[in-house]
Amino acid sequence: MTTSTTIVWLRRDLRLDDNPALKEASKIGNAVVPVFVWVPEEEGQFQQGRMSRWWLKQSLKQLAQSLDSLGSPLIIRRSSSSLQALMDLVIHTQASQVFFNHLYDPISLVRDQRVKEGLLQTGIHVRTFNADLLYEPWQVNDPSGKAFTTFNEFWDKCLNMPEEPHAPLLPPTRSLLAFAGHLPGCTVEDLELENNSEKDSNALLARSWTPGWINAEKALEAFVERHLLQYAANQHMVDGSTTSFLSPHLHFGELSVRKVFYNVRIKAVQWTKEGKPDGEQSVNLFLRSIGLRDYSRYICFNFPFTHERLILQNRRPFPWRVDEGLFKAWRQGRTGYPLVDAGMRQIWATGWLHNRIRVIVSSFFVKVLQLPWTWGMKYFWDALLDADLENDILGWQYISGGLPDGHELERMDDLQIEGYKYDPRGEYVRKWLPELSRLPTEWIHHPWDAPPRALRAAGVELGSNYPRPLVEFAAAWSRLQTALREA
After folding, report:
1. Is 458 within any annotated ligand binding site?
2. The overall pTM is greater than 0.85
3. pLDDT by residue (tens digit) across 7-32?
4. Where does FAD bind (predicted)?
5. Is 289 marked within a binding site?
6. 49, 383 in Cβ contact below 8 A?
């Protein structure tokens, strides 16, 4: 059937490169109308936080410029309903096709099904594509056809599928045919993704981050060429640039996971030819982190309740403590445990956190403070620049004993040991806790044990300019064991 116009609904796929919905629409030869619809109300409690909205704003600007250069401008709509906005555009353009790429978080799964059904009921042809994963969730199952519930089994299956993941698609190779008439819409500024009170703080983000799909490709190239080889050696050190920093680019779909996968694999082949065997471990570890991102979507697709309750429900509900005071102290980095406080202040200042520190602060939240894991997950969603619901769900399920291969809830890591393992010189703590910057390294991760003379020399007054531990570790351990026996 010949159609005159194809609408491409863009969401978290803000790129031209390896964008199946856009690529397929461009091949048909009809007018292509790319549209972004801003409907925060549909996200419920998971509306984007300040830093995430700042990133989205910059990303949309670059995408709009790129689409303009192809001759088919990005149509931006502010609406209270994605379905209604798309239907209005269908009527205006007389389009008979809508293409979009899949999303897998619990909120999007419900909305996208409702949109698809609504369009189909009015005779609109709908095509959907995989732009976010190596393999679709329904392609990866155990021998009985059931979903995996452990990451190692899932990832082993992905690496041994009969067919390799699809190679990344090139951007449209020719100008897109634009719709001939006028299409009403709004500008990126009209979406009010930041207000006046946020602009000064947001301006600081631009010093460290460069959103947009073109910048994402540059960031990937820089990581692969300069840092990937040492990834295995440096991945757990939290006081420097030891990670890829690709997570926000991946979340907003400025970069496809397939492109990352293939670029890294190509580099591995090159290193093998050059006789650099050390690269193999780094490649495997980095690809494993990419696999965990895919696994987060896999879990959300197969267990769509995971933003509300744990996957494992083999015990009575855990008696979480509902304590707003503890929650506030954790958010503000005032717990008295330096590694936790440094991490929480970094989130507050930058919206980003090394994965190891994410594990440490969330484990402290769940096991030491014993606050509801859903509170912590929601705070991460609100505060992180790379806030990603699927990743957040997987991480908090993992820490809270909700996954078969996750942390046992009764496991409580010693923060002093963790500190010297991941921040051995204390530079990370000193950067984010200036009140402890003069404290000798031997006390930096447990200032409560420092002799009074050392504290005075460093200008540290516990209980005044730096808090004493909010809860005693031994008491928290005892309380956790009691709660587990009762659960």
Report:
1. no
2. yes
3. 999 999 999 999 999 999 999 988 99
4. 231, 243-247, 286, 386-388
5. no
6. yes
